[in-house]
Amino acid sequence: MNSTARTAAIGIDVGGTDIKGGLVTSDSRVITKTTIATEVNKGVDHVIGRMIELIRKLDAEAKNGGYDVPAVGVGMPGTLSRRHGTIIAPPNLPGWRNIPLVERLEKAIPHRVFLDNDANLAAYGEYASGAGRGVRDMVMLTLGTGIGSGIILGGQLFRGEGENAGEFGHMIVQIDGRLCGCGQRGCMESYTSARHLIARVTEELQAGQSSSLKKTLEQNGKIEASDIARAAQAGDLLAKTVWEDACRYLAVGCMNIHAGIDPERIVFAGGMSNAGDFLLHQIHRFVAAMASDMLGEFPDLRIAELGNDAGFIGAAMHTFAG
Amino acid sequence: MNSTARTAAIGIDVGGTDIKGGLVTSDSRVITKTTIATEVNKGVDHVIGRMIELIRKLDAEAKNGGYDVPAVGVGMPGTLSRRHGTIIAPPNLPGWRNIPLVERLEKAIPHRVFLDNDANLAAYGEYASGAGRGVRDMVMLTLGTGIGSGIILGGQLFRGEGENAGEFGHMIVQIDGRLCGCGQRGCMESYTSARHLIARVTEELQAGQSSSLKKTLEQNGKIEASDIARAAQAGDLLAKTVWEDACRYLAVGCMNIHAGIDPERIVFAGGMSNAGDFLLHQIHRFVAAMASDMLGEFPDLRIAELGNDAGFIGAAMHTFAG
Fold first, then answer.
1. What's the rounded Cα separation, in Å, for the pair A9 and A78?
2. Tens of pLDDT along B19-48?
3. Chain B positions in Cβ-Cβ contact with residue A172 (cut-off 8 Å)
């Protein structure tokens, strides 16, 4: 075992429901990982206490295993200030307003703490030890309720001057198109998010369209993006139409990312990405039909590999990035 | 005078009509500049001979002025290989196929030669000593027959993994929209290029629409983008409609660049940019009407400052970038 392998950083990823954490070596092996409930309703101090508890537990495990811990990486939902180490106003953590999180954690634990945006760290995790291994430039699109994204350029997280880069979900792909949650019209997100897919299926069912998803809705009281993917794969006509339309807009999104920053790879994470090759195949098909070959080789499209662990792995790995 | 100011690089910018060249200090003063005809019809050897002649002339002027010349930067239209120093197949230089230009120049002159794409070097010129001074991240859009672009990130030219980054003109802003020269539908270029503006005006005139541009066409035998800008400013209804529509699509292009890479500044060069504040004002107006304020502060929009000198200035300045 070489000296590098005796170093392992702690990464934690704080969400509205869970805090995930782990001990990760600089060569990206996960030594141990653990998840606890965030208990966000018990207030800011309580949650910070739970974070400290989790970090101390991982720290003890590092000591037992003979690992040096150089730093702790913490991923939190935005908005936050990396430079000041403060949480500004994250929509999913009510009550968190201008909290000097790094200062408070560093008082309680004997390590430097690096705070960053959870979506960026998840992208970094996939870059460092998941579907982005082996490339230097990568974009990750997280296909969830909304569309998140993270950019790696030259092996580093790219955030832009105002730290707002990577909002590819809000690229306009249809001027004067559908109203997006952000207030713009025609954003890629407004055609490809789980929210949009579910809304379209629900509308069509209410309009009397027949579909196997009607039964899903009756049985479960709701429809999820994964239900739509499954029904589309099974050949359900409504599901197929809605799914393929979303893939067509995702193809345009990838084409625009290619034209703009020409990354070597685009990685898909989040709900829709669980469809795996079924997703990639559809996107490839629309790219083949729509994209100009004058714009050079198309980025490699991949499904993310780390699932919900990407955030804490990226948080830990990014502390090694200097 | 400090020692830095005694160093001046030679930059040359080769176009289908002219070769522009100059001697530029590392603090971006243009000591001397000159333009000669490319005489592209006389063949590759002849043009390379003229380039060598121009470089020697500038080299002699450097010696007379007491300047050390560290290197020569050469901007050429694509396609080319920076790494191999070869010209591959530039559309505007017929007969140039796989020419080892750097090798041939370095045999004839006593300096290292750096070859790069002319659009990238023009963007670098504006960054280093024009409308991009003072920022680290900048995108330049060159509004010409087509839409060119160049990206500066962290003070360096950004080209992407496949060296095809910065094709913002080929971002799709209207899925299934107008057919673009690249073969895609709905590219920003297909709504904003001079080619598009002129085609739209010509179509409308042929359809019997009244406009002051009819007289322009009769007098000059053609209409140029600058005629449309002038007529729009003078209140001509057809010109105003076409111009404003192009500005609306440019606004969407800027919004997408903002969402994607969030540069501090977007600089406009080329024909349409001669309209100056008339262009910026219109784009700002459409951005204000369409853009979400949830995506952070909008980039600063500016008109390029160096005109046709941007290419050779960028070629020279980029040799100092290491």
1. 22
2. 999 999 999 999 999 999 999 999 999 999
3. 173, 252, 255-256, 290
